[in-house]
Design a protein that fits this description.
The complex is a heterodimer. By secondary structure, chain A is an all-alpha fold. Chain A contains 15 helices and no strands. The radius of gyration of chain B is 29 Å and the shape is elongated. The mean pLDDT of chain B is 89. Chains A and B meet through α1, α4, α5, α6 and α12 of A and α15 of B.
């Protein structure tokens, strides 16, 4: 099997952590909890680190087995497929959300026109091709662009400081509002779940865990920094700026002096958006192959494309609907997918040995 | 007497279809007749007379196979062969000796044919460093490699390829450094080649490549022995094809084309700068025209105001749309390039005058094309030659990115770029990732990638070509 290294897995997670969080999320969260949104996302990140430790536990316990094999042994064929089917739905909507957020950015700041179909023509063939190329190719591409993405983000951070910024005002929202807001936008999180669907393709040993976690922490730090710098720069007008990373550049002294530097943010966001779509679609196709074992990867891609077009015409054409949909319905769904499913997997993997032991005892008795 | 020998000679001549360059001699002695056959065009008749025929004639003792090999022809390269090898030996320029009083068939090497003297290859000149280049004769090429690697582990293995041409394809590698799996795979691929003739090393390229229909080259090549030797020291296998001055090297990764032999004969800091310039040049060559189009058509608000005004001023009243204008200029440059390649050198100046002055300057003055368009396309075309080995691939990519940038804007450029990188990452012939040592990152090989460290700091051989990569299996 063609596996990927711990470093490549770390980079995949680093880039997926940034998904849906660096453009629209800081702005829409600000509307409810002001700068205290940062506490909400930090709490979610903390919980997600626990989820990540479940992944690491499962991976180290079953180094060569895929999710279906792990689940099937304990809870049976049907339940295993059902759990993976929930993953499938999660990744489908995750892709749609990522697409709609990038779409809003491109429409507002880059093309300044309705260009939905053009964006699909640009994105879908490349994303499909990425999935066909496979996880190793995707991870190598991510690895190649990793430093460029970091440089792009740091550049945006750096330019943001060439303007008047002041410490955001914290502790204005009450904990319940922070909790409610965090819950509302829960679907924007849960990116670690991608690891579960290609768990067997990751070459992760106990001594690689540190290397892997370094990228996770870096991702969390960058997302938190975007929130803080964005709020520090725009203060009470933060809710008006829908594209956090790109808007960090606007109004900076150097920005005006040198010329239009938003090309850097533009390239970074386009690249990031594309990578996130690739990895979520890959996760979708992997889940699909596990649920529908008789259908091959190309069929999974075709199904994804059809669903993508259908949902596009229902929701993304009116992208506000898509975002509203994720905050009103999908937050409940993500409670199940982001937290409950990993704990089920943990419980299953935890009790697996016990069952084998019991079976062994039974076998001994029968002998 | 000698009837059997004459019959045999006639038989060989018949097998070679009574070719005019077929030559034979007969020597009659007390014990019987000795026959000699060779090709005048491939052998040296003077050498034959002086070192073979005359010594036999002057030999006073009893002549037999043993005395021939050990005494008479002891100063020559002599080999005992069997009947099936006679024609091949004749075609190789050897003289084949046989007789009616001994059973052995003897072949003596007297091959002589016109060959070029190793000189500096026009495609890879150097400022400092060795100036020798490979020639068409494979024996000379072998010597050029052997002279540089004084090791018992240097191996040459010859295979004949081509149903009609029976061209010699020589595999060269250093035992213990080259990966045995790679050697076996190459041998397997070469032995499976079914083709009438191999005229040049490029003929066998597609048979060795994993994806012969791919735009990107998957096999390295060089005309310089010092380059090939350094690649062999890294664990690669060199493939020398008779009648071709271009030696192929396997496996190949993209970073090799960013490295020039000049880099190894100058200061390593300078080499690092030059490699970054090449990388930048490669990027400009691929995306500059497409990017310019994207900015002009979709994202003009990104352009600095002064530049925007210049573009607006110069593109007013042009008969072409920006997209067609760039395509037109691109086509013009490509035509000039093709013409300059095929024209005799004394017409080169005329081509430059026609190209630069008449087509370029007058084209702008006539309002057919705009100066920014000419500059951008010319920049891309010149930047292409920072990595001349990738010239054909980049030219195709330029057209693709012009179409993407002109129809989809920057998003088209970015998606196209990611598509190409994704594709390149699937190329890992002979277990060597195409974009190594950056994707996957191979820490040890970064010392001679874009950044080049001093030679005394390069302690380990490259790992990009060896079996498994860290973490990736």
């Amino acid at each position: 099997m063609r596996t990927i290294s711990a470093r490549q897995t770390g980079i995949i997670i680093f880039l997926t952590i940034l998904a849906n969080k660096i453009l629209l999320l800081p702005s829409i969260m600000y509307q409810q909890t002001k700068a205290d949104s940062i506490f909400g996302i930090l709490v979610i990140f903390f919980v997600e680190l626990l989820i990540l430790s479940i992944f690491l536990y499962v991976k180290l316990k079953f180094p060569n087995e895929n999710l279906q094999e792990i689940l099937q042994k304990k809870i049976g064929h049907f339940c295993a497929k059902f759990i993976i089917f929930i993953f499938l739905i999660f990744f489908l909507f995750k892709t749609m959300l990522t697409y709609s957020v990038v779409y809003v950015y491109l429409k507002d700041l880059v093309y300044q026109d309705e260009f939905g179909f053009l964006a699909i023509v640009c994105f879908l063939p490349v994303v499909n091709h990425g999935v066909i190329c496979g996880l190793r190719s995707i991870s190598r591409t991510f690895e190649l662009f990793f430093y460029l993405v970091i440089a792009g983000i740091l550049f945006c951070f750096g330019i943001a400081f060439f303007t008047e910024i002041s410490m955001p005002v914290f502790f204005t929202a009450n904990p319940l509002t922070i909790f409610n807001t965090s819950f509302k936008y829960l679907f924007s999180f849960g990116d670690y779940l991608v690891l579960f669907v290609f768990i067997e393709k990751i070459n992760l040993k106990k001594n690689d865990v540190k290397k892997f976690l370094r990228f996770v922490i870096l991702g969390i730090l960058i997302v938190s920094s975007i929130f803080v710098i964005f709020y520090a720069k725009y203060q009470i007008t933060a809710f008006m700026h829908n594209n956090a990373l790109a808007d960090l550049l606007v109004f900076s002294v150097q920005f005006n002096a040198i010329g239009r530097l938003d090309i850097v943010a533009m390239l970074t966001i386009m690249t990031l958006g594309l990578f996130q779509l690739e990895i979520f679609q890959y996760a979708f196709c992997e889940s699909f192959s596990m649920v529908f074992t008789k259908l091959n990867n190309k069929f999974a891609i075709a199904v994804f494309d059809i669903l993508f077009f259908v949902i596009y015409f229902i929701l993304i054409g009116k992208y506000e609907l898509m975002i509203n949909f994720t905050t009103s319905y999908l937050c409940y769904f993500s409670l199940l997918s982001n937290f409950l499913l990993p704990f089920i997997i943990f419980a299953v993997s935890f009790s697996k040995n016990k069952r084998i032991k019991n079976k062994g005892v039974r076998d001994e008795k029968s002998n | 007497m000698g009837q059997i020998i004459n019959e045999k000679i006639n038989n060989f001549k018949k097998q070679l279809h009574n070719s005019d360059d077929f030559s034979s001699r007969v020597f009659v002695c007390k014990k019987g007749t000795i026959g000699f056959v060779f090709l005048k065009s491939m052998s040296d008749p003077t050498l034959f007379s002086q070192s073979i025929y005359l010594p036999i004639q002057n030999f006073s003792d009893e002549i037999n196979a043993q005395s021939l090999i050990e005494k008479i022809l002891k100063n020559n390269v002599v080999e005992k062969i069997n009947e099936n090898e006679i024609i091949t030996n004749i075609l190789d320029g050897k003289v084949v000796i046989f007789s009616d009083f001994f059973d052995e068939i003897i072949s003596v090497d007297i091959a002589k044919y016109p060959t070029r003297i190793p000189s500096e290859p026009p495609t890879s000149p150097v400022i400092q460093g060795p100036r020798e280049g490979f020639v068409e004769d494979f024996n000379t090429n072998i010597t050029l490699l052997r002279r540089r690697i004084h090791s018992k582990d240097l191996v040459f293995e010859t295979l004949n390829v081509g149903k009609v041409t029976q061209t010699k394809v020589v595999l060269s590698y250093i035992e213990g450094i080259a990966d045995q799996k790679v050697i076996d795979e190459i041998k397997k691929k070469i032995s499976k080649i079914k083709i009438d003739g191999i005229v040049d090393s490029y003929y066998i390229l597609s048979f060795l490549e994993k994806r012969p229909n791919s735009l990107f080259k998957q096999i390295g090549n060089s005309e310089k022995p010092d380059v090939v030797v350094s690649k062999m020291l890294e664990g690669k296998v060199a493939i020398i094809v008779d009648n071709s001055p271009i030696v192929l090297t396997v496996p190949f990764i993209l970073i090799e084309d960013m490295q020039s032999s000049n880099d190894y004969y100058t200061n390593h800091h300078y080499s690092t700068v030059v490699r970054f310039v090449r990388m930048f040049g490669l990027l400009i060559a691929i995306v500059a025209p497409g990017f310019y189009l994207a900015l002009q058509l979709f994202h003009y608000n990104i352009l600095p105001l002064n530049f925007l005004i210049t573009i607006a001023d110069t593109t007013q009243g042009l008969p072409f749309t920006p997209f067609l204008e760039i395509l037109f200029i691109f086509l013009l440059f490509q035509i000039l390039y093709e013409v300059s390649l095929r024209l005799p050198s004394y017409l080169g100046l005329a081509t430059s005058v026609v190209g630069a002055l008449i087509l370029g300057d007058t084209g702008v003055k006539a309002g057919l094309i705009s100066p920014p368009g000419v500059i951008i396309t010319a920049l891309a075309k010149i930047a292409l030659y920072t990595v001349p080995e990738e010239q054909s691939q980049i030219t195709v990519l330029q057209i693709v990115f012009i179409i993407l940038g002109g129809s989809l804007g920057i998003l088209g450029i970015v998606t196209g770029f990611v598509y190409v990188v994704n594709y390149l990452n699937t190329l890992d012939d002979f277990n060597s990732p195409y974009l190594a040592p950056y994707a996957p990152r191979i820490k040890e090989d970064l010392q001679d990638a874009l950044i080049k460290v001093a030679p005394n700091e390069m302690k380990s051989p490259p790992k990009s070509f060896s079996g498994s990569k860290e973490g990736e299996k």
